[in-house]
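Researcher: Checking consistency across runs. Here is PKD domain-containing protein again:
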Amino acid sequence: MRPFYARPWLLLLTLLGFTRLAQAQIEPAAQYTTLTPAQLMAWTSTGPTALPANVSTVPLATRQNSLAPQLNPNQSFNSKVNWCPDGMNNFVGYLNEQPQFNLYNFTHWQYIDVFTWFASPIGIPCRPWVEAAHRNGVKMIGTVFTDRAGFQTLLQKDASGNYIGAQKLIAVANYYGFDGWFFNAESAMTFAEVTELRNLLKQLQVLKPAGMEIHWYDALISSGTVTYQNTFNATNSPFVQDGTDRVSDAIFTNYFWIYGSTFTTAVARANAVGRSPYDVYTGADIWPGRNPQQLFPFYTYQGTPNSGWMDNYYSGGNLTAPLTSLAVFAPNITYNGGLSSFNSNPADYARFYNGEVKLFSGDDLDITTADATGAWKGFGYYQPVRCAITALPFETNFCVGQGKIFANNGVVAVKGWTDMAKQAIMPSWQWARSGASNVAARFDFSRAWYGGTSVQLSGSLAAGASTTVKLYQTKLPITATTNLDLVYKGRAAGASSTRLALYFSDNLTTPEYLDVPALADTLWASSTLSLAAYANRELAIIGVQANSTAALAAYRFNMGKLKIYNGTAPAAAPVANFAATATTVLTGQTVTFANSSTNASSYTWSLPGATVTSSTAVHATATYATAGTYSVTLTASNGTAQNVLTRTAYITVLTAPPAGANTSLNFDGVSKYVDAGVINLSGAALSLECWVKPTTFKATSPFISSLLGMEDGGANTAMLRLGDAGIDPSQVQFVVQIGSTTRKLTSVARLTAGQWTHLAGTYDGSTMRLYVNGVLDNSLAATGNVVANAAFSLARNYAAPRGLDGRLDEARAWTRALTAAEVQANACGVTLPAAGLAGYWRLNDSPNLTTADASGNNHTGNLTNMGPSDWSTDVPSQCPTITGLLPRRAADGLQVQVLGNPVPGSQAEIEISGAQGQPVVLSLRNVLGAVVWQQELAPTTNRTSIAVPRAAGLYVLRARTATQEASVKLMRQ
């Protein structure tokens, strides 16, 4: 097999941090969805790392695979699909609804069989995603992705010789309700250790319940070395089948292949060991610019773009004859691979969703039409849809699981949100159109009946023209009592110009049509349509058709809910649920409680402490006049039953700092950060500095709390952060890309939660230095130019789990190396202008949602996912309020003033009053409290000159008598 790269780009990407991930964050509640091997070995269902909130109770839906209703019946269900986005814990590690619209999402479950929750070291799938997968009949498997030491930990045995790690993995999967494990071993081991690991896998086969799957990745081989086979052969087959012993249920082969021999070798070996060739998932890494299967653009081999690489999976390109199954790695290209900027820009949602459609429906975004020669055909060209809609009742509200609004019964609250647990069954085809091409189908993010989306048909129709969109493949038996409920809306009152197109198994070519009743207005309408005329037939496809006898220049039709059931619509008990648009607000600031209750028709809100303490609105709003902490209660009713939800101490109300006050910014370690745009710090030297007050430190991998700087996927790196793999999460790291190497300097000191600390990292072309509270803590020899020209952030960088839970103040970036004296003197402020100052955020901008760049370089920081309540008057106590720069105030007590402040030279004129005949001790301290000059003055002295240090910056001048004390800031130019 021809090697493509000297150093392979492996599944190890996530662990090493080479992939640019989302501007998102694992929420604190989900911190134990990644475990270390040691935590796994200590795990119990009642222990501290067990998360009851992560337990999925949604069963795996039954699927009915049928070729007849397919758009292309010349396909095969023999081949299976494993979908493996790179770094799930980084950008969707949550258990509860998130206050962000632009998190990663997936809506094409019907084309896949297994979803790998790729995370490390022990990646446990998060409940919302497990529930969405299970509703669609897709298995969700977690990941075991650790190093040699981690596997050594898992290989421990109990007194009976059984592998404790195997027992724990089964217990964790059973407890949380997911479907198995993906083993990714990419660290060299000894032959004996590999033998033990294979025996652990064999024991998993004995212990696991029916339906649970164990997958192996093609990397580690029996000798203990890591060597990628890129097919299924005699070298890696012992990890799938070892003689008569079943070791794994499937293998995900590596993806450095081009030739069809990859597949013939795999099929031959599978047959030789008595396993199905469809237990072999031939890997395809579709990340742009990385491997032969890359999308988009295509890998160019010998001058020809390899746009047809998927044809290799089929004998002679015959879709009825797949050779192996398919494993797709890094399909999150639509999110953070350059196909959209949705990960950092919520407004770019259309490009993200079009990218998802492109993956499955091809370059033309329509699965029913042939793509141009050389274009991407889409996975849906090769793979049939799997049908999980097999029994009544069937209901969907077309909610994709996120939105920029939240609607309940059509009443809208404006807010960004994501929660895959709320995702409905998605259309089987996105999108399958026939007829006139001027009407398009899409998800509408501005109109919804429940959740954040509806399905919209829109465009223009010529007289007598029609467009049919097939939405769902089903297998539903219709009886004389079957009804269909439809909630819909249109552009105008009157004829809807729309009808449902129902295809039955006994006649898949000619649909039955049901006219959608006319609209009384432009609001949501509800209609119940009887399906009794089709009793004893099987509904195979649900579609919708736009049609009109007269020309329509602006046709629009939205579907908000579709429900099919027998007899009377089943009455379900109401479930109360809601989420606030913000849980920390200021006095007088309005907060909206977005109501996500289900099966309810009326609501009662109790809002103690608010200016209006009760409401019957669908989405309640409240303002609070007094600072404090308040609870909120919602009672949801449907006429026969009710459900009550109280969120105790849910809303925190703060008093706003006055405009222009000395403030810091408070970050939540979840989604809040400041985006200062692209800053170029590349060159021979740089410095970064800030004050930080951590609230908590990261308890789980990757243990990082970013403070300020940039990190752009292995290049363009310059940052200060707390924690990293292998160090304590309270230790400071100064990280800089120097030439082609990322250099890391770690502090000896460990920070204390709840305590302000000044940090500075400098690089002068020969040495990296790290200062903690003005004192040199550690240094590292390094030479070369800095490579750092990328997006600069405060309180987050690169990947989701790396946000700061705490406060920042006085953040700065320089294109020169500060001296030790400057680090001490300038900690609390910089006299402007200052040479080499590239960015300076004093963070004194309350109540704005931007923070000014005082350097004059216009790198304004945008507060992202933040509000006015994130400004705090909690600032470093080491930085007293400047009084010496203000006009002198008359006072009877001891007063000290600097005449001519800032001080331009080496001497400062000082005036003293109110000493009341007592000797005065004058002292000058740097901002870290160190005394740099001191002198006792005679009782009669009221004016004197003092020596000022050479280092420019901020100092504190203190005057003290036996009974009084006064201080003033002195600015040295």
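Researcher: Does this match what you'd expect to see?
Model: One thing to look at in this run: The radius of gyration is 32 Å.
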